[in-house]
Amino acid sequence: MLRLLMDTDTAGDDVTSMLFALRWPEVSLEAVSVVAGNVYLDEAIANALVTVEKAGRPEVPVFRGAAKPLVRDLVTAHYVHGDDGMGGAHFPKAGGEVAPLYAANAIVETANRFAGELQIIAQAPLTNLAFALLEDPELPRKVERLWIMGGANNSLGNITPAAEFNFYVDPEAAHVVLQAGFNVTLVPWDVCLLDGVLLREELGPILDMGTELSEFYLQANKGAWEFMATHPHGPRIDGISHPDALTTAMAIDPKVITASGRFYVDVEHGGELTRGYSLVDISGATGLDPNCEVVLRANKARFTEMLLQVLSG
Ligand code: RIB
Questions:
Q1: Which residue of 23, 122, 161, 260 has the fewest CB atoms within a 10 Å radius of its CB?
Q2: Which parts of the chain have pLDDT scores under 50?
Q3: pLDDT value, residue 157
Q4: 14 Cβ closer than 6 Å to some ligand 1 atom
Q5: Left, alpha or beta for 192 (phi > 0: left; psi -120 to 50: alpha)?
Q6: Quick one: which of 172, 11, 149 has its CA closest to 80?
C-alpha cells in the first residue's frame, strides 16, 4: 500500500493528480493539505473538496493551509487555469467541509501516524511544508519520500524565463524545504513538457470516453489547455500538460521514471530577475553534496495508460 499526503494549490492538473491518488487501487490518500498558489486559498480548498467528492472519496480529509507565501505577496495563475481554477466551470460547492486542523499540523500529525511509511506529493508552492518543518524539524526523518513538482533543470521556466511557477511563488519555502534533509525526488517542468503533455490528437480516447471523471478532467483542464495552445506567455503547444499528475504517477509506478540523476539543487530567493531559479548542479561545480534525485525523462506511454485507467473509472 502506498500511503500519500498531497499538498496542493488545487487547479487544473492538481485535480488530475488528486484523481490518481484518490482512484488508484493500491494507494491510500491519507490527507490533502491546501495552499494558495494557482488560485486563492479558499478557491483551492473549494476545488479540493469538489475533487474528493467527484472521485467518490468524500471521507478523505482536506486541511486549510497558508493563504500566502512565507514573506512575499501571493502571485496566482488564474490566467492559466481560469477564474475559479477549474476552467471556469464554477462547480457547485461540495457537500463536505474543510477539516479543523491547520495544514502544517496535519502534515506533522499524519507523518507521525505513518512514520517511515508516508510519502508526500508536493505539487504547489512549498509554504505548507516549510511551516510543517518549523512545527517539527524531525519531519524529514519521518517522511519516507518527498516528491516535489517544481523547478526547471537548466531550462526555460514557465512563469519567467528563469523560474517555474511553484518555486517562483515561494522561493524561500522552496529553499528551506530543499535544505531540510528530506529524501527528495524532484520532477521539474522540463520533463513535464517533454514527456507529460497529451496533444490534441492524443486526447481522442479521453474526449470520446464520456465518463463522469473524463468530463471532470476535461473541464478542470480546459483553461490550461487554452493557455498552453494560445496564450502569448504559453509554450504554444496544442495539448494538456500534467506536471502534478506525472509526479503522482511516478510515485505509484516508479517505472514511469526512465532517467534520473542525483544532483545538488537549491533555489534563488535573493534575486529579482532570477527569483525562484532552480540551480541544478549537473556538473558538480558547487562541490556540494547532492540533495535530490532529479527526474530527467519519463515514460509518456505508461503515464497515458495510467491516466486513461483513472479516468475510465
Ligand atoms: O509549474 C507547474 C506547477 O504550477 C504545477 O504544480 C501547477 O499546478 C502549478 O501549481
A1: 161
A2: none
A3: 97
A4: yes
A5: alpha
A6: 11
- Nearest ligand 1 atom to alpha carbon 165: 1
**Nearest-5° Cα angle at 99, 67 to 184:** 65
**Model confidence over 135-167: pLDDT tens digits?**
999 999 999 999 999 999 999 999 999 999 999
User: 3-state DSSP call for residue 123?
Assistant: strand
Residue 250 to residue 187: CA distance in whole angstroms: 9
Ligand 1: distance of its center to the CA of 242 in Å?
9
Catalytic residue numbers, as ranges: 233
**CA 287 to ligand 1 centroid distance, Å:** 30
Q: Around Cβ 41, how many Cβ atoms within 10 Å?
A: 20
Amino acid identity for residue 258 in this structure = T
In tens, the pLDDT along 167-223 reads: 999 999 999 999 999 999 999 999 999 999 999 999 999 999 999 999 999 999 999
**Residue 38 CA to ligand 1 centre (angstroms):** 7
Q: How far is CA 5 from the centre of its chain?
A: 11
DSSP 196: S
What spacing in Å lies between the alpha carbon of 74 and ligand 1's midpoint? 14
Q: Which domains does the chain have, with CATH numbers?
A: 2-312 (3.90.245.10)
Which residue has a Cα nearest atom 10 of ligand 1? Answer: 124
- pLDDT given at position 313: 85
CA atoms of 239 and 230, how far apart (whole Å): 10
Q: How far is Cα 19 from Cα 286, in angstroms, rounded to an integer?
A: 39
Ligand 1 pocket test target in 10, 13, 168, 246 with most atoms within 8 Å of CB: 13
Alpha-carbon gap, residue 99 to 49, rounded angstroms? 10
Q: Is 166 in the pocket of ligand 1 (CB under 6 A)?
A: yes
- Output the CA–CA distances (angstroms, integers) from residue 196 to 93, 105, 228, 290, in the order listed: 30, 32, 13, 25
Query: For residue 149, which atom of ligand 1 is closest to its CA?
Result: 6
